[in-house]
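Me: I keep going back and forth on a fold encoding question. No explanation is needed for now; the record alone will do.

Assistant:
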Amino acid sequence: MVSVDCSTFEAWFADKIKKKQITEKAQINDLLSELKSLKLLSKQNVTDTRATITLNYPDRTEIICADKFSIYRNGTYYEMTEKLKKIIW
């Protein structure tokens, strides 16, 4: 099994990436609300990236990496939630 870092995710899985676009306002609000409520992991983690979330803002783009157990966002690791798993997968 290979542990995939956030920065190399696309290189490893380029031919297997499935894209899911969320455009409904309610779904976007659910996603953003869930991201705001994430709990910090108590110890430093390494996310074995299996999905990325791309948030497009008018002035920037944010890439969030995820595996079954954690989220990596802006240099910080958070616990994955069941609700976020359902949104992503």
